[in-house]
Amino acid sequence: MAERLMSLQKEESMRRLAPALLLSLLTLAFASPIALAQTTGDTPTAGTASATGDASNTGDTSTAPHAPTSRDRPIYHDIYITLKDHSQIAVQKQLRLGKEYLSVHKHPGELSFTATVLATGLKRHQQVPYLHNETDFDVAFHLVFANARAHDQYQVSYAHVHEFIPKSKSNWQELRVFDSVKR
Question: Where is the Stress-response A/B barrel domain (predicted)?
Answer without folding.
Answer: 75-180
